[in-house]
Write a structure and sequence with these properties.
about 250 residues, alpha+beta, GMP Synthetase, Chain A, domain 3, Double Stranded RNA Binding Domain, 3-stranded mixed β-sheet, 9 strands, rod-shaped
Amino acid sequence: MAAITGQNGAEVSPSDPNQQPDVAADLPDMARPDPWGVKRAENLLTSLQGVLSARVEVSPVGEVTAVHVLTHAGTPPKQMVRNVESALLAQLGLKLDHRKISIAQTAQVKPIEALERSAVRDEAQRRKIIFRGIEIAPAGERRVAVRVSLVAQGDEASAEEEVADTPKARMQGAARAALSVLDRLLQTGTLELDAVKLLDQFDSNVVMVGVHAVEGRETHMVMGTAETKENPERAAVLAVLDATNRWIQFRT
């Protein structure tokens, strides 16, 4: 008779039902007694690679009568039967006839880990605009060329603005170059820079930008901020992306 054993290898025996009141039905699932170690066996099987769920059936005297396992499509059933046999024997000391193990496969059900990975991937794909870099080079007497590169839907695009070599002008040039790249992506509407300011807030330097988002006859002011961790020009680009992210998401 195949019965699930305890962790020390001894068979687990339930209490005599004639001497103990039956209160299991009044307890939640996690608090119910598990005299035959069924839950332990099921948890072990669901930890195997490719297994989505497992159910162990036992007789009133603790004999394992059937093991039902649901796996991903593509997992060889014979190999999975061997995996189940080996896991039960190695971990629980339970030697089980392979004929008592049934394997079902599905391509539709996903474990929670797969669902989480899918959600993260979908969220990453929704972030269509990624900052790639900024370059500032001399462009004449007291002038510089500010070049901003963004990655849009997997393709890199850049724009350049020539401005006076002053801190404020350089920030404005970086913001305008970023908006120029973004403007090319829009199927409807356009973006225009309103203002760029460097603020001292919460013991940090923060760049704030205001952008006019124009679509048809409607104009909206969107604002964004970014902390100046490296330089104000880079922060100006990130502030533009912060301001326009949601607006652009529905128009590209």
